[in-house]
C-alpha cells in the first residue's frame, strides 16, 4: 500500500490559485470573476470594471467593459455642479481631515481680557505678566484706582460693597492678625501691615458709600 507523506503538499502560489479563484481585482482594475455585462447602452461586452455612480453614491457602482470604463473615467468629475464657495469649503475642511475646529471661547465677544480685569491686553508684557489678576479683579464691575483695587483684594472684598461692609471685613482681619488680639502671635505682622494699608486706601474713598 502506498501512503502519501503527511507533509507532502504543494506550497506554490500558482497551485493555490488553481484551488480557489476569488473575486480578486487584477492590476488593471478588472474583476476576473465578474459575470456582469457592460451597462453602457447598446454594449454586450463583459463588464469587468466598476465605477461609482456619483460623488454621493461612492459605494454603488456601474459595471463597464474596458473601452467604456475608460470613456466613463474621462468624463468623471467629482466636483461637477459644485460652486466656487462650496469647493473652497471642501478644501478647508479637507485640510483638517474633515473635522471642523471650534473656537476656544463660545462667547466670541472679544472681551476676554476685560472679563479677567485687564483693560489693556498689553499689560501682559508688564511686571504682572505671570501673575493671576485675582478673584476681585475677575469680579470687577466698575473702574477704580489701582491702589483701591489692590486694597479690595487684600481685604477680600468686592467693589459693590458699602464702606460699612468693608470696615466690618477689615475689623475681622485685625482680630485674627493683631498680636494683642490673637494671644501674642506675631507671625502675621507683615499681612497685618497690608491690611492696615488697604483700609487706609478705602476709608476716605469717594467711590464707596456708607
Describe the structure.
It is a single chain. It is built from eight helices and two strands; from the N terminus they run H-E-E-H-H-H-H-H-H-H. The protein has helices at 13-19, 66-75, 84-94, 112-115, 134-138, 146-155, 163-177, 189-202; strands at 49-54, 57-64. The termini are far apart.
**Quaternary organization:** single chain
The largest β sheet comes out as: 2 strands, antiparallel
- Taking pLDDT < 50 over at least 5 consecutive residues as the criterion, the unreliable ranges are none
- The H-and-E topology, N to C, reads as HEEHHHHHHH
Portion in beta strands? 5-15%
Provide tags for this entry.
8 helices, single chain, 7% strand
Briefly say what this structure is:
This protein is mainly alpha-helical. It is built from 8 helices and 2 strands.
Task: Furnish the topology, listing elements before pairings.
Layout (H helix, E strand, L loop, with lengths): L12 H7 L29 E6 L2 E8 L1 H10 L8 H11 L17 H4 L18 H5 L7 H10 L7 H15 L11 H14 L8
Antiparallel strand pairs: 1-2
Helix pairs in contact: 6-8, 7-8
